[in-house]
Design goal:
Structural class: alpha+beta
Strand order of the largest sheet: 1-2-3-4
Strand content: 15-25%
Oligomer: single chain
Radius of gyration: 12 Å
Number of helices: 2
Number of strands: 4
């Protein structure tokens, strides 16, 4: 299951790198201060950070929001099927090509 999420995140990052969506939003480190694992909802994130550059909906009901971050980084927010934040993953520019 963990492998599946990683593969989906890599695919999402690849797609996002080619995207020119009007919803792009660069996330700053200060944007993470309000994110609480097992508390913050998808709606909370959208209200505070705007629309993600990509959303991946997994077959198990979980979803991943992808945001751009400074210096070429990408941030993935993983949500449970109840739409509650489970984890935050930050990828450096050279981790995904």
């Amino acid at each position: 299951m963990k492998y599946k999420i990683i593969v989906l995140l890599v695919a999402a990052l690849t797609i996002a790198g080619c995207s020119s969506s009007k919803y792009k939003h660069s996330v700053k480190p200060s944007d993470y201060t309000f994110l609480d694992i097992n508390i913050t909802t998808q709606e909370d994130v959208r209200n505070m950070m705007g629309e993600p550059i990509h959303i991946d909906n997994n077959s198990d009901g979980r979803s991943v929001f992808l945001y751009s971050a400074p210096y070429g980084r990408k941030t993935a927010l993983v949500f449970s099927k109840e739409e509650i934040l489970e984890k935050i993953l930050v990828f450096e520019k050279d981790q995904v090509q």
